[in-house]
Structures are given as structure tokens and as C-alpha cells.
From TrEMBL:
Alphabetical GO biological process terms: 'de novo' pyrimidine nucleobase biosynthetic process; 'de novo' UMP biosynthetic process; glutamine metabolic process; L-arginine biosynthetic process
Start and end residues of each Carbamoyl-phosphate synthase small subunit N-terminal domain: 4-134
Organism, scientific name: Neolewinella aquimaris
Quaternary structure note: Composed of two chains; the small (or glutamine) chain promotes the hydrolysis of glutamine to ammonia, which is used by the large (or ammonia) chain to synthesize carbamoyl phosphate. Tetramer of heterodimers (alpha,beta)4.
Entry keyword annotation includes Transcription regulation: no
Protein name per UniProt: Carbamoyl phosphate synthase small chain
PANTHER family documented for this protein: CARBAMOYL-PHOSPHATE SYNTHASE SMALL CHAIN, MULTIFUNCTIONAL TRYPTOPHAN BIOSYNTHESIS PROTEIN-RELATED
Function: Small subunit of the glutamine-dependent carbamoyl phosphate synthetase (CPSase). CPSase catalyzes the formation of carbamoyl phosphate from the ammonia moiety of glutamine, carbonate, and phosphate donated by ATP, constituting the first step of 2 biosynthetic pathways, one leading to arginine and/or urea and the other to pyrimidine nucleotides. The small subunit (glutamine amidotransferase) binds and cleaves glutamine to supply the large subunit with the substrate ammonia.
Pfam families hit by this protein: CPSase_sm_chain, GATase
Enzyme class per UniProt: ligase
Length: 372
């Protein structure tokens, strides 16, 4: 690595100077931080991070290299990386390349050798905001103009930019269960969790209509995670409402959770910082147990509006740090969702039971059972 310099400029004018990491260039996005100690490659390729500059709070990023087996989508989805130590040498035998080679191939611009603790403290206080990284342009006035022209995350629809272009299938066509996936930015490990539970999956583009989805003849319907503002996704809300009318078991994760809430009239809101990491404690109100969860979201479901609609929605999970809504189920419908990522990758597997819960509810329906 050369010692070429780089600059990070936040929308409020705060500036940090460091070294170039990855591709030499300029990139803009909403700055956010992730507290995970491992799993950087899975985080880079999570479509939910599309349009965001990621601050890694762990001191070393890249130290165990890059492996093709640890990607969650077809490419890197973060807009850029901010880290303390961009560690190019690696010794893991399973890795195929260094992080520098990977970022150059994927066209990712980053900055290292900055005080990530100071950056995290700053955006924790000031909230999420746009920022720009450049390792080629150090004219602050020009960077400010570029940054000022960038759209804010609030009101931004991004799922259509990361979703599959064409519907595709995965798994054994003779599996016992068929699941339709509305791809708002799904992760590969979500699909692997379905396949491991004897499910045949068809993944549909974000803007697929209910007629196209119904033609698959699915036994259950799933709404995936993804990037952007759920408040700007009326098209997905209309599809979710049509799905609810089918009265088939439904499950939503992260953005899918927010879309399901909107489908029954519960609005969402932009959080001050959001939750991103693999150590977030969640309390399951139905079992009385707590779970350590993997999370990545900057929007939430309105708790005030849920309190006004307890005849429609039941809260099933709450965040133990800030009491935000982490899970709901729709009363009178076989539909539920969670704000966090039970598929992990990276993260703990405390919440993997939710996939079993979904599959079991499908089996009950198929066998003529009644689900409360």
C-alpha cells in the first residue's frame, strides 16, 4: 500500500484526514457505524448497506483476507469504507485475496488511519448524515458542493437498484414446501436457511406483482431485507397487502418487517443512528427469553402508532437497549416479522428458530391445522 492521503468530509463540515484504502477515487453516502468484531466481508456485501459509508469500529479490517464463500450478494454494496487499520497482509489459508485486491476489483473507495472512535462519538451525537471520501480531490469547497448535491437517505428508494432483475429458483423442485421471496435486497444466507429446511424457493424482483408471485403457487411468502427508506416504497406495501389477502403464512426481515407494518397502516421513521452490529440484545415477549442479534437498519416501526393499533398488531420483540420495536405479528393473519437478522452471517444464531417457526406455520396450514 502507498501512503497516498485521503480525506473524509461530513455534511456538518467535520473533516478527518487519513490514508487511501482500496480504489483511488471519490465516493458519497450516508455515514454509519457497525460494532461487529468479525464478518467484514459479509457486511460489505449485504445489500442493506447500499448507499452507505461504513465506519468499522473493530481496529483491524482485512486481517483474515477475502474468501469467495463469504459473500452475501453478487458484489460489494457499501458505498465506501472508513477504518482504523486497513490490514492488507493475511495468512488464512481459505482466503483467495487481500482486501486491497478485492476493493480494487470491486471499485470500492476507502479511508484508513483515522480515529474511528472519534468519528463514532461524533455521529452518535449528531446523528446519521451524508459524507464524502476522496483520495483524489482535496479541494474542500468542491467536495462540499458534491456532498450538498447528494440526496439524503430519508425519502430514498433503493431496493430497485439491488434486487434481482429476473425471477429465479433455488433448491429441489420436489421439496415439501415452496416459498416465494420478494427480493428487496436479500442476503444469500436467508435463502440458504430456507433450502436447509426442505424448501424450494423462487426469488422475485422487488416490483413483482401479486399475479406473478401467485403463479408460482407458493405455500409461504417472505419479504426480505434491503436498503433505503420504507416510506418511499408504496409499490412494496401494495404487494404486501395483496400477500396478506392471500392468507398464507408470511415472514418479513428488516426492511420486510417495516413493509409489513406499513401494509397494515403502521408508519416508519428515520432513526437517529440506527442499529448495526452483531451484539444487539432483543427481548422475546412471547417466551420471556433474550436473544443476541445481528442488526443493520436505519429506520424503525413507529411504537406510538402500534400502541394505537393493538387490535391489529401485537409486539413480539423489543430492543433491550432502547425499547424500539424488534418484532410484530399481525392479529388474525399468519404473518409476523422481525427487525433484526435471524440468518446472521455474520452474527450469533440465537434467532435461527424464526425460520423454523415460519416453516412450521406453513406445515400446519398444509396439514389443515389452525395457527393462532
Amino acid at each position: 500500500m502507498s501512503d497516498q492521503r485521503a480525506i473524509l468530509l461530513l455534511a456538518d463540515g467535520t473533516t478527518y484526514h487519513g490514508k487511501a484504502a482500496g480504489k483511488i477515487g471519490t465516493t458519497i453516502g450516508e455515514i454509519c457505524f457497525n460494532t461487529g468484531m468479525t464478518g467484514y466481508q459479509e457486511i460489505f456485501t449485504d445489500p442493506s448497506y447500499f448507499g452507505q459509508l461504513l465506519v468499522a469500529t473493530n481496529a483491524h479490517i482485512g486481517n483474515y483476507g477475502i474468501s469467495d464463500s463469504e459473500i452475501e450478494s453478487d458484489s460489494v454494496k457499501i458505498a465506501g469504507l472508513i477504518c482504523k487499520n486497513f490490514t492488507v497482509p493475511y495468512s488464512r489459508q481459505q482466503a483467495q485475496s487481500s482486501i486491497q485486491e478485492y476493493f480494487e476489483k470491486e471499485g470500492v473507495v476507502g479511508i484508513s488511519d483515522v480515529d474511528t472512535r472519534a468519528i463514532v462519538r461524533h455521529i452518535r451525537d449528531k446523528g446519521a448524515m451524508n459524507a464524502i471520501i476522496s483520495s483524489e480531490n482535496f479541494d474542500l469547497e468542491d467536495l462540499k458542493q458534491q456532498l450538498g448535491a447528494a440526496p439524503n437517505m430519508e425519502g430514498l428508494e433503493l431496493s430497485s437498484r439491488v434486487t434481482t432483475k429476473e425471477a429465479y429458483t433455488m433448491g429441489d423442485p420436489n421439496a415439501s414446501i415452496k416459498i416465494a421471496v420478494l427480493d428487496l435486497g436479500t442476503k444469500k444466507n436467508i435463502l440458504r436457511n430456507f433450502l436447509s429446511r426442505d424448501c424450494y424457493v423462487k426469488v422475485f424482483p422487488a416490483r413483482a406483482g401479486i399475479e406473478e408471485i401467485n403463479a408460482f403457487g407458493a405455500d409461504g411468502l417472505f419479504i426480505s431485507n434491503g436498503p433505503g427508506d420504507p416510506g418511499a416504497m408504496d409499490y412494496a406495501v401494495h404487494t404486501a397487502q395483496a400477500m396478506l389477502a392471500e392468507d398464507k403464512p408470511m415472514f418479513g426481515i428488516c426492511l420486510g418487517h417495516q413493509i409489513l407494518a406499513r401494509a397494515v397502516g403502521i408508519p416508519t421513521y428515520k432513526m437517529h443512528n440506527g442499529h448495526r452490529g452483531i451484539n444487539h440484545p432483543v427481548f422475546n415477549l412471547l417466551t420471556g427469553k433474550s436473544e443476541i442479534t445481528s442488526q443493520n437498519h436505519g429506520f424503525g416501526v413507529s411504537p406510538e402508532e402500534i400502541e394505537k393499533n393493538l387490535d391489529i398488531v401485537e409486539v413480539t420483540h423489543r430492543n433491550l437497549n432502547d425499547d424500539t420495536i424488534e418484532g410484530i405479528r399481525i392479529l388474525g393473519k399468519p404473518a409476523f416479522s422481525v427487525q433484526y437478522h435471524p440468518e446472521a452471517s455474520p452474527g450469533p444464531h440465537d434467532a435461527a428458530y424464526l425460520f423454523d417457526q415460519f416453516v412450521d406455520s406453513i406445515k400446519e396450514r398444509m396439514n389443515g391445522g389452525v395457527r393462532d
